[in-house]
User: Fold these one by one.
Assistant:
Number 1:
Amino acid sequence: MRFKKRGASGKLCLRRTHIPMIRSTSWTSVQFRSTHGTNSGSSSFSIRSHTCGELRSTHVGEVVTLCGWVQYQRHGMFVILRDYSGLTQVLIPEDESRIKLKKTFCELPLESVVKVKGKVKRRPAGQENKEMPTGEIEVCAETAEVLNKSKKLPFEIKDFTKKAESLRMQYRYLDLRSSQMQYNLRLRSQIVMKIREYLTNIHGFVDVETPTLFKRTPGGAKEFLVPSREPGRFYCLPQSPQQFKQLLMVAGIDRYFQVARCYRDEGSKPDRQPEFTQVDIEMSFVNQAGIQALIEGLIQHFWPNELRSISTPFPIMTYEEAMSVFGVDKPDVRFGMQLVNISEVFSSIEVEFLRDIVHRPGGCVQAIRVPGGTRHLKNKDLESLKHLAKIHFNQTVNVVVLKDDGTWRSSIAKLLPDSAKQHLLQLTAAKPGDVLILASGLLQDVRSLLGKLRLQCVQLLEDKGMIVRDPSDFHFLWVVDFPLFLPKKEYPAELESAHHPFTAAHPEDLPLLLKEPHKVRSQHFDLVVNGCEVGGGSIRIHDASVQKFVLEKILKEDSSLLSHLLEALDSGAPPHGGIALGLDRLLSIIVGASSIRDVIAFPKSFRGHDLMSGAPDFISEDELRPYHVCVKWPVQEGKEKQELDLTKNSALDS
Amino acid sequence: MRFKKRGASGKLCLRRTHIPMIRSTSWTSVQFRSTHGTNSGSSSFSIRSHTCGELRSTHVGEVVTLCGWVQYQRHGMFVILRDYSGLTQVLIPEDESRIKLKKTFCELPLESVVKVKGKVKRRPAGQENKEMPTGEIEVCAETAEVLNKSKKLPFEIKDFTKKAESLRMQYRYLDLRSSQMQYNLRLRSQIVMKIREYLTNIHGFVDVETPTLFKRTPGGAKEFLVPSREPGRFYCLPQSPQQFKQLLMVAGIDRYFQVARCYRDEGSKPDRQPEFTQVDIEMSFVNQAGIQALIEGLIQHFWPNELRSISTPFPIMTYEEAMSVFGVDKPDVRFGMQLVNISEVFSSIEVEFLRDIVHRPGGCVQAIRVPGGTRHLKNKDLESLKHLAKIHFNQTVNVVVLKDDGTWRSSIAKLLPDSAKQHLLQLTAAKPGDVLILASGLLQDVRSLLGKLRLQCVQLLEDKGMIVRDPSDFHFLWVVDFPLFLPKKEYPAELESAHHPFTAAHPEDLPLLLKEPHKVRSQHFDLVVNGCEVGGGSIRIHDASVQKFVLEKILKEDSSLLSHLLEALDSGAPPHGGIALGLDRLLSIIVGASSIRDVIAFPKSFRGHDLMSGAPDFISEDELRPYHVCVKWPVQEGKEKQELDLTKNSALDS
C-alpha cells in the first residue's frame, strides 16, 4: 500500500502535443489523459472513479478510486469517507508491515481530504448497515493518499449540531458541507434548471441578460449607487429589470425571462438580502389569465416529487376579499379564524364607545374566533396579544373567553345584554371553549390588526404543540384587483403607485382614472403561498399617453427621467405583461427553511455584512480618488476625524 | 370587419372564481380564459394563435389570429405583418362598405402593432413568394384591431439600413427588432441553455449564485465600489467569482458553475464592457486535462449546427511555443507568416548594428515572410507597418521586397553579402514576390512587434480583397505553461501574478518557487480561438501554506485581506481547478460580430454610458447622504463649483 502526502498541486500528467511549424489545419495532438474520464456522470473527467454515495453490491469486485473527507474513524480499522453524495466505509487491511501507515491514516484529523484506491467487497454477513445506502459494501484500500490535512475546525460537520448563525456565516464553507445545506443548494440548482427548461424549451422564452449598472429610477430610494469615473455621475443597481423587460417587449423579443440578480438597499430588515434573485418574466400579447396559467404550469413543472403535489389552477381571490376575510393581502388560507364583521351587534346598544365607532364613517367592530382557544391560550397569551395590538397598532382589543359552561369572561360581558351576546355568538359561530378577539375602529385599521392577531394566535397555538397549519401543505393562490394607487403615508392627499408606475388599470375602472384615481383597481396580481407573497405580476401600460398621464398628473413625478421608456411606448409597443417570482423566498418555503439565508450560498447578515470576508470594508482615499467621491464622516463619530478628512481633501484639491 | 383602437389595457376577460368563506382546501375556481392557450409552443397562453413566421400551406382553411408589427403595405390591399419569427401577408378584402376602414389600416404608420383574425388561404397561382417561408399563403382578414399606433421612427427596421452605432444604442429597443440582433440574442439564449444542460444534466454540476456585493480583493484596482450605509465602508463589485468558487470547493459542492455577471472598471477601453458575463466553472479532484476535456465536450455540445463543425480534442501549444512562433500568447493559427529566427545570419557579418544586437544578451534578429506580398503591399502599406512599429513599439523594422526577378529592394540589401542573403532566404523559405519584415532587439520586444505586424499584414492583405483567414473556420487551441509570475511593469524587480494569486505552480517547477520564482511555469491555460482569448483556467493552490507563501513572500501582499480563504484552505480543501469562458466574446466570434456589443441586449458605449437612458447620471446630495459620501469635483472643472460644493458640505456637517 502506498501512502504519500501530495504537494500543493499534485503530480499531473499533462497532455502532450506536437506543434509543427505549419498551418494549424494539419496539426495533430497526441494526448495522454490521467483522468478516469467517463464521458458523463458525476465523476466524468475526475481523478476519482465513483462518488462516495454510489457504490452498491453490484459493484463488488470492481477496483474503484474514491476521493472524500474523513467523516470519522472506527476501531482503528475503518475510515468513513464522505462527499456530497454520501458515505463509504473504507477498510484499512490488517498487515504487520503497514502498521505505521495505518496509524497515520487512522489518526488523520477529521475533515482531511484523502484519495483511496481499492476493491469493492461485500461486508461480512451481519455487518451490513441498512441505514446507509452504501451499507452493503466496503472498499478495501490498496493505495491511499492524503490530499490535504485539515486543522481543527470551529465546529463539527454534523447535521444535528446546533450552531449560532453568526458562526455558521463566518465559516460558511464548513456550514455548506452539512447535508441540509447541500440539499438546499442542489435542489435550488435543479429547480432553476427546470424553470429554464419549461420557459425556453416548452414555451419559447428567450433568456436575456439585462444590465445591473443602470440609471436611478424616479423615487428609487432603495437603490444602491455606484460612482463612475466621471465626477458626480453614478450608476445605480436596479431593484428589478422592470424597464428593460418592457423595452424588450417593445424590441419584439416577444417572450423574455431571466433569473435576475436584483438589489435593494433596505438597511437592516430581518430576512431581507441586499441582493436577491427573481425569476423575471415578460410576455407580449397576453392577459392576466395567460400569465397566471403560465406560472401554474411552471410551478407544476418544477415541483419536487418528494413534496405533496399541488393542483392547478390556483384559486383566485380579490384584494378586497383577502382584506375583508383575512385582514391581509397575502392570506394564509390553511386555517380559518377569519375576520367577522360584528358591527350590527353594537349599532343600537348601550356600549357607547363601540356604538360611536360603528356610526363613525368607516368605523366597524370585527372579531376573530379561536376555536378551542380557552384550553390553549392562557392569560399570559391573551395579554401578549393585547400588548401587540397596543404596541404595533396603538389599538385596544377586547377578548371574550367562552368558558365550557357557557359563561363569558370578558370586560365587555356585563355591558352587553343577552340578546347582543346571542347575536355575537351567532355571527361568529362561537361555541363554549372558544376565544373571541374583538377590535373596533376604522375598517382598514381593524383589518390589519385582526389579520396580524390571527397569525399571532396560530403561532401561539403551534408553540404549544397544536398543529394548525400543516407544513407539508402548499396552498397557492392568486390575489387580484389590487388598488392601482395608495395614499402616501406622509402626505395622504397625494397618491403613489401601489406597486410600480407601469401597472395598467383594470379595464372596467379606466373611466375613473381621470377623476377618482384612488378608486381605480389595477391589473396587478400577487402569487401567495401559505401566507407569503412569492410573486407579483401585472399587465403594463403600453400606451405612451396613459403612461405620461399617470406619471405627471397622478404621481407628480418628473417624467423626463423616463423619457426613453415613454418614447419606446410610442414606437410600436405591443400590449404586454409579466411577473417576477421571488426565488429565494419560494425556495425557502419549499425546503421548509426558517430564513432565506438557508437557500443562499453566501448570504449577508441582517445588517448587510458578509461575516466571512468582512464586507463592506473601509477603502483608502487613494482608491476613492478615481471616483471623485470622499467619505463624509458623521459628526457624532468624532469631530477630529472629520476635520482630518476635510484637511486631506483640501490638500488633494489644491 | 371590426377595427377598433384599443385603450391602454385592452378588454380583458378575467378568470372568475368563487371564494367561499371556508378553508381553502375545498375551494374550487371557475375559470374563463380568453387566451388561445395551447399548452406549449411559442403561442401558448397568448391572444394570438400563431406567430407571423409559421403558417404554411398545411394551415390553409384554418382561422388564425396573428399579432405583429406593420412591416409594409402593398397596393393598398396587403399589409405585411412581422414578428420575431418572420413575415405574413395579410389581405384586406375588397369590399365597398369597408373602404374607410381599409384606408385607415393601410395608412397606419409602419411599425404600428395590430391584431388580425382571418382565414389562411393559398395565394393565387403565380403569386407565391418562394423567398418568404410563408410565401405560399396569405391571411384573409376577417377582423382586425390596432393595438398600438407607432409614431414616425428615427430609422427604419430594415436589416440592411446602415446606422451610426450611437443612434442604434440610443434607440436600442428599435435596433433589437432587426433580424440580425434577434438572431444574436436568441442564439445566445439557446447556447447558454445548452451549456447549462451539458453541465447540470450530463456532468452533475451545481448552478450556484454567488454574491456581487463583496469585499475589495488585494490589488483589485479595477473593481467598482458601492457605498454602504455605514460611514466609510464600501462593498465592491467583483471581477469574477474566483474566491467564491474556490470556497464552494472547500464546501464540498464538488462541481460548480454559474453564468456569472462580472464587473471591471477599465475606463474607456474599446470593446470592453463594465459588466460582462462569464461561464464560470470549478471542479474538485480534477487536473488540467480533465478541465480541458470538459470544455471541449461543452463547446461540441452547444456548437450551432449551421456553423462548420469543430473537432476535438483541441491542439495544445505551450506559451513559449506561441510566443516564439506567433509572437503572441493568443495565436491566430489560421495562417502562417510565422516568426523565424534569423540571428545566425548576422552574427558574423559587417552590418554592425545588427551584429551588435545579436551578440547582446537576449538580443536577436527575426523575420516574418509575407508570401506574394510584393503584389499586394504597396509602399504606402509598408510605410504604415514601419510607422506602427515606431509608434507603438518604438522600434525600427527593415523591409525586404523580393522582386519577381529575384533582386532585393531594401535598405539593408547593399550591406549584406550574397552568402548572407542566400542564408536569409533559406531560413525564411522566401521566394521572389515575397516580402520579408525584419526586426531586431531584445527577444521579447521582437516577438511582440512581429506578432503585431503579422496580424497587421494579414489585415492589409484582406483589406485588399485577399482571403487569408476563412471567417467560417474556427480554430480552437489551448495555450499552456504560462509563467506563474511576471515582473511588474513599473518596478521590474518585483513580481506580480501573471493571472491571479490563486494559480498553482507547474509541478515540475515547484522546486523553483523558493529561489527562482520568475522561472516557475503555472498550471494556467488559455482557450484561444482565431486569435482571441475566450477562456482562462487553472489548477488552484489548495495548500494554505503555499498560498500564504505566494501572497506574502512573492507578491508582498497583505494576506490578512484573504484570511478567510487561507483559513478555508486549512479546513480540508480538496485539490481543485476551473475555468471561466468569456461568453460575450465567444458569442461575438460565433455570430461573426465585429463587437461584443452586438451580442449584448443593452450594452454600454465605450465610455461606459447607456446612451438610451443616460446612465450614469447625476445624483442629488440628498440621495448621497445616507451613504456618507460626497462628490469631490475636480478643480479643473471650475473653482467656483468646487467651492460651492464645499460650502454645502460644511453646512450639512455642522
Number 2:
Amino acid sequence: MKPTPSIRGGLIPRSAIRKLIPLSKETEKHGIKVIKLNIGQPDVETPPEFWEGVRHFKEKVLAYSPSEGRPEYLDALISYYSRFNLSFTREDIVVSQGGIEGVLYSLIACADPGEDILVPEPYYSNYLGTAAMAQVNFIPFTTRAENGYHLPERSIIEKCITKKTRAILFSSPGNPTGCVYTRAEMELLADIAQKHNLFLISDEVYREFIYGDTEAVSIFHIPGIDDHAVMLDSASKRYSVCGSRVGSIISRNKPFLDAVRALATVRLSAPTLDQLGIANCINTPDSYFIRVKADYKARRDIVVDALSALPDVVCHRPEGAFYVMLKLKGIDTEVFAKWLLTDFSHKGETVLLSPGAGFYATPGLGRDEIRIAYVLECGILKRAMEALIEAIRQFRLL
Amino acid sequence: MKPTPSIRGGLIPRSAIRKLIPLSKETEKHGIKVIKLNIGQPDVETPPEFWEGVRHFKEKVLAYSPSEGRPEYLDALISYYSRFNLSFTREDIVVSQGGIEGVLYSLIACADPGEDILVPEPYYSNYLGTAAMAQVNFIPFTTRAENGYHLPERSIIEKCITKKTRAILFSSPGNPTGCVYTRAEMELLADIAQKHNLFLISDEVYREFIYGDTEAVSIFHIPGIDDHAVMLDSASKRYSVCGSRVGSIISRNKPFLDAVRALATVRLSAPTLDQLGIANCINTPDSYFIRVKADYKARRDIVVDALSALPDVVCHRPEGAFYVMLKLKGIDTEVFAKWLLTDFSHKGETVLLSPGAGFYATPGLGRDEIRIAYVLECGILKRAMEALIEAIRQFRLL
C-alpha cells in the first residue's frame, strides 16, 4: 500500500502560464524557434544598484533577517513610496517573499476557511493557487475585453457580496489585462469596501508600468481607506529582479498586520541578500524608469497595432503592466495555443501564448481569449506578431 | 466600522522562541548584557564557497528560477547526498524557501484540512504555525527529558493513530531536543508508517551536527520506505546561511511530489542567488565541518557539564543539533525566563532562554523545561552558565 496525497494537493491548479512549456521544449527539439510570450519575465537588465546593494553585505554570518524585514529595506521602501505621496512607517510594512507570499498571507489573515474573496476576472492565475492553499473561495465578477477589462457597474459587484465575503482582491495595473483603474474606479471599490466592511487587497506590483497620461492611483491615495486597505507590492518587475524574492504587505489595520506578522514569523525570514539589493535600488535613477517605460510602451503599441486591426479580434490598448489580453472570436485558444506548437511555424518560428481560460474562475469564460506578455525586444515582437497574424489566418481556415 | 482579521489569523501561534525579544531589548536599555541562548542562529562564519557561488551569477537579468529549483542547485544536492549513500535524481527533489516552506508544503500535500499529523513533542515550535496555516491537527506523543527525548514505546505511538492520521512529522537530529534517533528508532517509525499507510516526514536539517560515535541515519537509509518517506532539508544551519532561504523537499512518492511541485509553481521561484551560493557550498572542504562540529561539541559539553550536575535538574547529553532541552524541576520556566530579564543579573549579565511550553501541544507540558541554543563561543557560554546557575539558585529561594 502506498499513501496518496491529499485531495487538495491534487487540486492545486497547475499554472495556466507554464503548462505549455514542456510542449514548447518539444517544438524546439524539432528546430523551430518558439518566441515566448507566455511569462512575465522581463528581458530588462537588472540595474547595477541591485548588485551594489548585495555587495553592501559585509557581515561574516549570513544570518536570519527580522521576520518583518531588514530595517534598511523597510526604510528604503518608505522613501520610495514618499515619491508617490504615500506616507508609511516601519510599523505599516511586513516584507514578503515576492508578491505572491503577500497574496497568500493576506488571504489567510483576512478570511477563514470557506469564506469568500471577491475577485474581478480575468485575474492573475497564481491567485487561484493561493486561494486553494488558504482554503478560501474566489467569487468572480467578470470584466470584459469590450471595455478594456475596466470594472463593471457597482450593482454587479455588490450582488456578489454575502455575509461570507471578507475582501476584494484586485491588481491595478492589472495582470493579465494591463488595465489601470481610474481614480473613480478605485473610489468605487473603496466605497463598496467601506459600506460592506471588507478588506480591499490592492496588488500594485506594476505601479511603475503605466503609459501615456494615465494617472497612477494607489489604494492609499483614497481618503478614509486606512482600516480597509492592504497594499501588496514586489520588487520583481520594478527592477527586473524576479529571481530575488522580495515584496511587501502594507496595511494600517493593526490587527490584520499583526496576523500577517505572525505568519511571517512562522517562515522566519525573507532572503537577506535580496533585501539589501532591493534597498539599494532606491538609488536607481529616474532615467532607468523613463527608458524602461518608453521601451514597454513601444512594445505594447507593436502588439496592439498589429492585432487590434484584425477582424473578429477584440483588443483594446491597455494602460499599463506589460500584458495584452485579447479576444479571438470563435477560436478555442486552448486548442490554438497547442496547435501553434505542434502544427504551425512561420519562417521557422512560432509563439508560446497563455490561453485565457486559466485566468477565469467562471467555467467557460476566457476560452476565446489569450494573454500576451510583451517582455521581448521590438524586433522579436514584430516577428512574433507577423507569425501570430498568419497563424490566426490559417487556424480560421481549418 | 473596521474589518477584523480572520479567526485563524488571530490564532497563528506567536513564536515561543522570539516572544521574549522585546523584553530583552528593554533589559539591554538598562545596561545589562543579555546573552541570547534562545535562537538557533549560529555564530559560525559563512564559508567563502557560498560567496563564490553567488558571484558565479553573470546573467544580465536576475530572472525567476525554475519553480522546482535551479539545475546547478539540484545537481549539487544530488552530489552532496551521495556522500551519505543517498541516491537521488532531479525528479526526486523540489527546492523550498528554507526548511520551513518544506514543512508547510508537505503538510498541505499529504493531509486535507482537519486531518491529523502525529508529532513527537517537544517539537520545533514553528511546526505549529505551519499546521495552523495548513489547517491540520497536530496529535502529539510525548517524549521525556528522563530518557533524552528518545521515542516512547511503539504502543504509545500507535494508539494516537486513527483514520484521520496522514503522516508522522519529526526531526532528527532534533530541534529542540538535540536527540538523534537510533537506527532502531528510525526503523520503528518506518514500520509504523508502512503498517498504517502513513507519510513519514523526516526533517533532517541538522544532519551535519552529530557528535561522538552516534550514527547519522536518514529516513532514506531504511529499506522499503520509498513510498512513505519525505525528507526535508535546509542549507541554513549546514553552512550557517540562515539568511539565504533555500531548502529541499525530497520524495520518491510521485503523486505527493507532484502536488508539492504544483505548490512550488504557485510561489514561482526560490531565490536565485541563494541557490547558486548553496550549489557552490558543495565545495566546502571537510575541514570546515570537522572544525564546526568540534566547536559545537565543546559548547554542548560546557552546557551539559554545568547543568546536569545541579540538583533537581534533568539534563541528558544530547547527541546532535545545537540545542539542549532540560527540566528544571519545580520551576515555572515562563515566569523564570521573564524574571531573568526583569529582576536578575550576574556580573552585569543575564540570559535569554526559550521556555519549554511553546514546544508542546499538550497543555501543561513543558512548563518546567527550557531550551538552550548553544550557538555562542565557549567563553560566552561559560559566563552564561555561571549566570544561569546563580539564577536558578536565587529563583529557588524566592
